[in-house]
Amino acid sequence: MARNHARPLSPHLTIWKWGPAMAVSILHRATGTALAVAGGIGFIWWLVAAAMGPEAYATFLKVATSWFGYLVAVGLTWSFFNHMFSGLRHFVLDVGAGYELRTNRLWSIVCMVGAVVVTIAIWGTIFAKMGAN
Amino acid sequence: MGTGTGIGRVRGLGSAKHGSQHWWRSRVTAAGNLLLVTWFVISIFRLPHLDYEGVVKWISSPLVAVPLVLLTASVFTHLRLGLQVLMEDYVHEEAGKVFWTLLLNLYAIGGAALAIFSILKIAFAGVPA
């Protein structure tokens, strides 16, 4: 449907003042898209390769354990936890709680910081194990 | 426009013409994802080896294959609903909406079918000698 130019557009990214609540909101969409596309394709490739046999799986592993594979994996880990934490935040907001300005701001920050902390903890452990072997 | 009750007046409204169904299904699958993807991430993290034999042996167990199939269904339903919202918000032309809707459905349904078939093939064919 063509847009009626006499009507105003809703406020857009460029004219909002950045704050934790809007950051966590747009990150929810961005990380969701990353998980849906990169995570989804990686998941399908992993399973199809395993179902096709050792050679196809070796190709998958070669890409997955390259520097690019690790970069994507770290990105997806962060995306997953950011999306999961802000998803849990949405569950709370859905029941009508957590809208007070300070509370909302606090949990927005907790979601974003939590995702970074968990990602560093997981990949720190993996790289430490790899270094020990 | 209905003349009677509140529900009668809002039925068929909204961008998808399905009222709250889209919103509710995205919440239900979010809860499914929370459970199943958490299980998946912990399991993958705890697997001693991610080599071919180790992974195929792991997937061939019913207690892994079944949650994996459920995970695929929940995740791909959720991503289809989520990306549909993005499209509704950011694609403004009708032709673009048709194109992205078709592509999204192809990806979500085709991708889920590929993943589920692969899980079942590994589960039913058993572990290669």
UniProtKB/TrEMBL annotation, chain A:
Matching SUPFAM superfamilies: Fumarate reductase respiratory complex transmembrane subunits
PROSITE patterns membership: SDH_CYT_1 (PS01000)
Listed cofactors: heme
Any GO BP annotation: tricarboxylic acid cycle
Keywords: Heme, Iron, Membrane, Metal-binding, Transmembrane, Transmembrane helix
Top-rank taxon: Bacteria
Entry protein name: Succinate dehydrogenase cytochrome b556 subunit
Gene encoding the protein: sdhC
Automatic annotation (TrEMBL), chain B:
Keywords, sorted A to Z: Electron transport, Heme, Iron, Membrane, Metal-binding, Transmembrane, Transmembrane helix, Transport, Tricarboxylic acid cycle
A Pfam family assignment: Sdh_cyt
Membrane topology term: Multi-pass membrane protein
Any GO molecular function: metal ion binding
GO biological process: tricarboxylic acid cycle
Primary location class: membrane
Keyword Transferase: no
Cofactor: heme
GO cellular component labels: membrane
Biological or metabolic pathway of the protein: Carbohydrate metabolism; tricarboxylic acid cycle
Regions crossing the membrane: 28-47, 59-79, 99-124
Localization annotation: Membrane
Keyword Nucleotide-binding applies: no
Subunit note: Part of an enzyme complex containing four subunits: a flavoprotein, an iron-sulfur protein, plus two membrane-anchoring proteins, SdhC and SdhD.
Functional summary from the UniProt entry: Membrane-anchoring subunit of succinate dehydrogenase (SDH).
Protein name, UniProt field: Succinate dehydrogenase hydrophobic membrane anchor subunit
Phylogenetic classification of the source organism: Bacteria, Pseudomonadati, Pseudomonadota, Alphaproteobacteria, Sphingomonadales
